[in-house]
Amino acid sequence: MPFVGNVGMPELLVIFLILLLLFGASRLAGIGQALGRTIREFKRELRDVEDDLRDEPRSQRAKET
């Protein structure tokens, strides 16, 4: 999708205005909060998985594969 790199400020403003018209200001704020919580939870779980893999002994990982 080569056109994705060409999104500038005017395009983002148009997208924001369309979202604002579709959902309204209060609903849009709720969507933003939910998206932020989702991203934070995803990062936290990703860190937990990385920590588990780092703490797991290498010999045990070799046996499982």
Describe the structure.
It is a single chain. With 65 residues, the protein is mostly helical. Helices cover 82% and strands 0% of the residues. The protein is built from 3 helices and no strands. Helix 1 packs across helix 2. The protein is elongated and about 55 Å long. It starts with 8 loop residues before the first helix and ends with a helix.
Keywords for this entry:
elongated; mainly alpha; 65 residues
Give the integer mean of the pLDDT values: 84
Q: Could you say which structural class the secondary elements and strand pairing correspond to?
A: mainly alpha
Sketch the topology as an H/E string, one letter per element.
Answer: HHH
- Rough outline: elongated
Taken as a percent bin, the fraction of beta residues is under 5%
Count of individual helical segments: 3
Distance between the termini: 36 Å
State the oligomer: single chain
Sheet with the most strands, sense and barrel status: none
**Roughly what percent helix?**
over 70%
Detail the poorly predicted runs.
none
Number of extended strands: 0
- Write down the Rg: 20 Å
Please render the helix and strand layout as text:
Blueprint lengths: L8 H15 L1 H31 L2 H7 L1
Quick synopsis:
With 65 residues, the chain is mostly helical.
